[in-house]
Design goal:
The protein is mainly α and 120 residues long. 34% of the residues lie in helices and 0% in strands.
């Protein structure tokens, strides 16, 4: 594994695997993902807070998700915060770019409020 990865590269699936018929059956499947970029660019400005604050940006994001068949739901995820802090610091120690950019947000959460969440 290279620095910053928490899963071996062998765990990755290429796009072709998602075109195959389902190989298991289950009543519930939870997939947790993080989006970097948007449907048009890795820069991801279509998902920027400023873009999503407007009706046009929200409509575009909904269209991207609808086109991809993505259903978005929010649910709490329980985790060991001390273990998460330790893992973060082992991967991105003080002085690293990721630490400088993310540590305070990791500790305090993003500066968003529940009223900014999309209800659609």
């Amino acid at each position: 594994m290279s620095a910053g990865r928490s899963c071996p590269l062998s765990y990755r699936y290429g796009p072709a695997v998602f075109r195959q018929p389902a190989s298991i059956e289950t009543d519930v499947l939870y997939v947790v993902g993080v989006v970097h970029g948007d449907a048009e660019s890795l820069a991801g400005w279509g998902f920027a807070v400023e873009t999503l604050a407007g009706a046009t940006g929200q409509q575009q994001a909904r269209q991207w998700f609808d086109d991809a068949g993505v259903v978005v739901e929010a649910m709490p995820i329980s985790y060991d915060i001390e273990q998460a802090h330790g893992s973060f610091l082992r991967q991105w120690p003080p002085g690293s770019a990721a630490y400088d950019a993310c540590w305070q947000r990791f500790l305090q959460g993003p500066l968003f409020h529940v009223d900014q969440a999309s209800r659609a």
